Amino acid sequence: MKKIRLMLNSFSMCEITLWSLSVILVAISFAVFDRENYMTLIASLIGVTSLIFNAKGNPIGQVLMVVFSILYGIISYTFSYYGEMITYLGMTGPMAVLALISWLRNPYNGNRAEVKVNSIKKREVIFMFILTAVITVAFYFILDFFRTANIIPSTLSVATSFIAVYLTFRRSAYFALAYAANDIVLIILWALATLSNISYLSVIICFVAFLVNDIYGFINWLKIQKRQNDNHDKE
After folding, report:
1. In sequence order, what are the beta bridge partners of 107?
2. Each residue of 86-127: pLDDT tens digit?
3. Alpha-carbon distance 150 to 23, whole Å?
4. CA-CA distances (angstroms) from residue 207 to 47, 184, 214?
5. Which of 159, 185, 201, 204 gets the most CB atoms within 10 Å of its CB?
6. Helix H segments across the chain?
């Protein structure tokens, strides 16, 4: 109980407000546009909660991301978004497990509630983009084989998702920026789905909330990185 109180006290009023507004927005959109797909509601609530933990560099966020990936994969299957299903079940989920292990193995000053922020070299960035290109091309043909709906944005989602999970695993502050780019792609993707089924509008609103949280996460990770570097220089 004491650990839970300490964890909750670590969140600023801004972060609590951001999480609360995200939850309210998701709940209202579900009540107005859906009212049936409770899995979508649960996935969205877990998703926004994982993002506020990720913004703090807390490994709990990666645990919740694994759960979200499973639920989102199932939701994507219902609209034949096989790219999203394969991406989250076959890549984002497993990479979240690897990221969890990486974050737990690299706590900042022994504090397991905050990961040590890492900076990657230019050579690794080049390697990451080459690997992303290879995986994206491979996924395009896989998605085409399964007759994936809206294949171009689905393929683009694979690319942005891979960059995001790679940077998450490597503990780079830019993982949140990559996820923000992925959120924009997913907003477009589910907007196309909404043309066929208005209930998917709640998914769009979910990713709008994700976008705001990811932008905040990027800003906060830059602050965390600066603080950690400043403390290191003082030692």
Report:
1. 115
2. 878 888 899 889 999 999 999 998 888 899 999 999 999 999
3. 29
4. 9, 8, 10
5. 159
6. 2-9, 13-33, 38-55, 60-78, 82-87, 93-105, 122-145, 151-169, 175-194, 201-234
